[in-house]
Design goal:
- The longest helix is centred in the first third of the chain and has 33 residues, at 105-137.
- The chain is an all-alpha fold and 437 residues long.
- The chain is built from 17 helices and two strands.
- It has helices at residues 2-5, 8-23, 29-40, 44-71, 73-100, 105-137, 142-170, 175-197, 216-220, 225-246, 249-255, 262-284, 291-311, 321-353, 358-365, 367-386, 400-423, and strands spanning 391-393, 396-398.
- It has two domains: 1-200, MFS general substrate transporter like domains (Growth Hormone, Chain: A), CATH 1.20.1250.20; 214-437, MFS general substrate transporter like domains (Growth Hormone, Chain: A), CATH 1.20.1250.
């Protein structure tokens, strides 16, 4: 038992997975958003904002509560548990209320409040809480450790999706709100267990008092400020492009005449998302400069996007084997690069700015995720709405030209990302302890 108390898997990896596999289910929104819209008597477009708000408040709460995580991971992981499970239960209540009062604005605003703001705070604090702890326990393989936890966040959708679909099919009338109550209870137990187990290594003591630790701005100024701006921009642009494509993924697959395989392809892309989180970050442990991983992600994304643009892969994909292969390769690799972008941020930041204030700096950087959550999906939806025209393929109404135009936007943004990675983000101070103690 004594060995378990100081075991890095028991005190860092397992609790990180318990927390991240729970909060990562925020990405399951697309599975039940239509059911929620139908049940409460609102449009799907109106309910979609709940997910955008959840990602926005994830980024904002991480940015503003990074210092709380820095000082006390037990307080922050408890806040995460209560807010995430409480927000989920509250969402269930307002779905029930909307069912009793169809078209009620109170129900819609209640869902925004619970799924967006309250769960968003749980997401931000829950996402940050285990990351520094993992990097402290696994100091020799930081990328592998953070990749493992962040892969849990990515894999959560693949694990939870079939469970949620089964619940919706078997819970009968009002299954949609009952599901939220059941999930709230289940995730509270899992996250509370993670909260109890999470612990920093015995030898690590956070500096105490106002003067013990430099301000975040002082730490960021140890490198040219353009360096941090570059990291933030790379992160923001990679997520924006990823969300723009992922939000249209199902419709793009239908353009290829593969409507019957949407479920399987979505599961494979979720596996690539999780695999990218673990694979790219573990690979980066072997590199002198972790920024090399971002350059690789952007080059792969640019090459595949350009191939689909040049061949008109989405427009000409129905029945064209080469186009189908190229479009699926693009979907899978963008998912992998999207995931890899997440898992490499905390380790890249620690290589540049040391471990002393990493939770707070990582938290501020996650604000990029919050803004990208508002920009990515909405940008893609706007392009699809204003370009091309709807056609019917195998009984599905789709807009191949519109989705093709989304790729023009993401290609331009990926090129900007690569330029930022090459010219703004300097080689890191890896191995040099900056403000470590």
């Amino acid at each position: 038992m004594k060995n378990l108390k100081n075991n890095k898997w028991f005190r860092a990896a397992i609790p990180a997975l318990l927390l991240h596999c729970s909060i990562g289910t925020v990405y399951c929104w697309s599975i039940f958003s239509q059911e929620i819209a139908d049940y409460i008597g609102h449009t799907k477009g109106a309910t979609e904002w709940a997910f955008s708000f959840a990602i926005f408040f994830l980024g904002m709460s991480a940015a503003f509560l990074g210092n709380v995580v820095e000082k006390d991971i037990h307080k922050s992981s408890l806040i995460a548990t209560i807010c995430f499970a409480g927000g989920m239960a509250g969402t269930g209540f307002f779905i029930w209320y909307g069912g009793q009062n169809p078209g009620s604005i109170v129900a819609l605003l209640g869902i925004y409040l619970c799924y967006g703001l309250i769960m968003g705070i749980g997401l931000g604090t829950g996402y940050l809480s285990p990351v520094k702890t993992l990097m402290l326990w696994f100091s020799d393989r930081k990328g592998l450790a953070t990749g493992l936890a962040v892969a849990g966040f990515g894999a959560a959708k693949a694990i939870a999706s079939p469970i949620m679909q089964s619940m919706l099919a078997n819970l009968g009338e009002g299954g949609i709100f009952k599901m939220f109550y059941i999930l709230a209870a289940a995730y509270f137990v899992l996250m509370f267990l993670g909260h109890l187990l999470l612990k920093k290594p015995e030898g690590w003591h956070e500096p105490q008092g106002k003067d013990a630790k430099p301000s975040i701005m002082q730490v960021l100024k140890t490198r040219p400020i353009s360096n941090y701006v570059g990291i933030w921009l790379m992160f923001f642009l990679n997520i924006t492009c990823g969300l723009a494509l992922i939000s249209q993924e199902k419709m793009i697959i239908k353009c290829l005449g593969l409507a019957g395989a949407v479920g399987i392809i979505s599961t494979v892309s979720a596996i690539f998302n999780a695999g990218g989180r673990l694979g790219f970050s573990a690979w980066a442990d072997k590199m002198k400069d972790r920024n090399t991983v971002y350059k690789m992600i952007f080059i792969i994304s640019i090459a595949l996007t350009a191939l689909v643009v040049v061949t008109g892969g989405i427009s000409n994909g129905n029945g064209n084997i080469l186009a189908i292969v190229l479009v699926l390769a693009l979907i899978f690799m963008v998912n992998a690069g999207y995931g890899g972008g997440f898992s490499n941020v905390p380790t890249l930041l620690s290589d540049h700015y040391g471990m002393g204030s990493i939770s707070a700096i990582h938290g501020i950087t996650l604000s990029a995720w919050g803004f990208a959550g508002l920009v990515g999906n909405q940008m893609a939806a706007l392009i699809v709405k204003h370009f091309g025209e709807e056609v019917v393929i195998d009984g599905n109404t789709v807009n191949p030209t519109g989705y093709q135009y989304v790729l023009y936007a993401t290609l331009a943004l990926y090129v900007i990302s690569l330029l930022v990675s090459l010219f703004l983000v300097k080689p890191s101070k890896a191995g040099e302890a900056v403000h470590d103690h």
